[in-house]
Amino acid sequence: MGAASAPVLLAACGKDEVTPSTITTTTTGTGTTTTGSSSCTVAPTETEGPFPTHTPSSYVRSDITDGRTGYKLTVKITINSSPNSCAALAGALVDIWHCDAQGNYSEYGGTGMQSTNYTSVHFLRGRQTTDAAGLVTFTSIFPGWYSGRATHIHVHVYNASGTSLKVTQIAFPEGTGTALAAVNGYAKGLSGYTYNKSDNVFSDDTAGAEIATVTGNTTDGFVLTMAIAV
Amino acid sequence: MPTRTITLAYRKVLDVNSPKPWDKLVLADSYRELRMQAQLYNPGGQYRTFGELLHYVPGAEKLHFLVGGSIGGYVQQLKGVMPDIVNNVGRYFLKFTRYQFELINSDLHDPSKHQVAINFYTEPLHWHDTIASYLLVSDATAPAEANGEVLTHLFQLQPYLTIHSLRPAEPAATVG
Predict the structure, then answer these.
(1) Which superkingdom does the taxonomy of this entry point to (chain B) (predicted)?
(2) A148: which DSSP letter?
(3) Residue A64 domain-assigned?
(4) Burial class (CB within 10 angstroms; exposed 0-12, middle 13-18, buried 19+) of A189
């Protein structure tokens, strides 16, 4: 051993290692090392397990709050099929995502490591399947805002096999008495806020087709309802 | 010898040749999620590979993060025990609490080209000594026995396992 065992990195022989395709793995898993090499690593010799089970994507949940603070917002989206006389579309997958009260998306931490005991790294993102009435319901918080955009929720609708049917955004009603006015931009206030008419996504929506109905108050929370035709 | 504190990183590469059930579940679910989420960056369907998306579509690098959301449940099933890497008596011994999912290559029309990695980062280890090609380490968070004895592991560096960070030994005077 010692100096003779230099090519450590080419000699791993444990059957469970991830190895480049140029390395053949022949160990039987009994814990013995392959003969002829002085620098092999030992193969796993443990009771088998744990046994993996199929786990749904962590997006599949109704409550997407993940500990983010803000006024409660219940999001009810109905998906209708425009080729089918706007009948309710059952079994469609609906993704939503939006920013937190400060205007940040969960992806901003996405280039770093994530911790297994901090499961909320994908906060304010969720996926639900429409019921027979075409409805999905999410529990979240009222979104904050960030420079250049009106308050909005992103929506991506897929059919049951995951094929994209529509990518869109939901806008919020504005003016006296609206939820937007009641929330008042959280700690930021609404100074410098971009209203729908100036928003680069919603400004062409003169009919207001992308604006949801939002009811409620800051004490009891708000309910957003929206119908989207795909 | 003065004791340094290190963390290890293991880049577990998963592809069509990965043999274990856990690997296959992670691959299948991340591929399905990629096919769904990639449509956001590929509305016309003109790009076929992850490499093309990354090269041509601004923001497509978010797919690492977005697709990573599909496999968190499998990482939790590992219960904080680093897979694949064993000590010299054949036991899994490394603990991790942090990880990072990474797309390497994929083809939206060919699941056999889907290749991902999960980078696992260990908890801190004390690196006491090096014996031939083996590192002698102990859990840096474990309390020492009253007589100063610490329990150790002997293991070898191997492909895709590296020392991720190092904290130099403190001056001998403060260590005692």
Answers:
(1) Bacteria
(2) T
(3) no
(4) exposed
How far is the C-alpha of A116 from the C-alpha of B135, rounded, in Å?
26
* Tally of CA atoms within 13 A in the half-sphere of B23 that contains its CB: 18
Q: How far apart are CA B108 and CA A70, in angstroms?
A: 38
More confident residue, B165 or A8: B165
> Within this chain, do residues A37 and A109 fall inside the same structural domain, yes or no?
no
Identify whether residues A93 and A184 lie together within a single domain.
yes
Report the CATH number at residue A105.
Answer: 2.60.130.10
* pTM exceeding 0.90: no
Q: Verify whether the Cβ–Cβ distance A41 to B64 is below 8 Å.
A: no
pLDDT the model gives residue B1: 63
| CA closest to A5 among chain B residues | B133
Q: Kindly state the percentage of chain A with pLDDT values over 70.
A: 78
Which pLDDT belongs to residue B117?
97
- Tell me, yes or no, whether A114 and A183 share the same domain: yes
A16 shares its domain with A79: no
Q: Is residue A67 part of a domain?
A: no
Tell me if B80 and A116 make a contact (CB, 8 A cut-off): yes
Residue A211: domain span: 72-229
Query: Which of B156, B161, B163 should one mutate to test binding to chain A, selecting the residue with the greatest count of A CBs within 10 A?
Result: B156
Task: Decide if A41 is inside a domain.
Answer: yes
Q: Name every chain B residue with its beta carbon within 8 A of the beta carbon of A5.
A: 132-133
Q: Are residues A101 and A36 in the same domain?
A: no
Distance from C-alpha of A70 to C-alpha of A144, rounded to nearest angstrom: 9
Q: Is A8–B13 a contact, with Cβ atoms under 8 angstroms apart?
A: no
Please state the domain count of chain A: 2
Q: Give mean pLDDT, residues A173-196.
A: 96
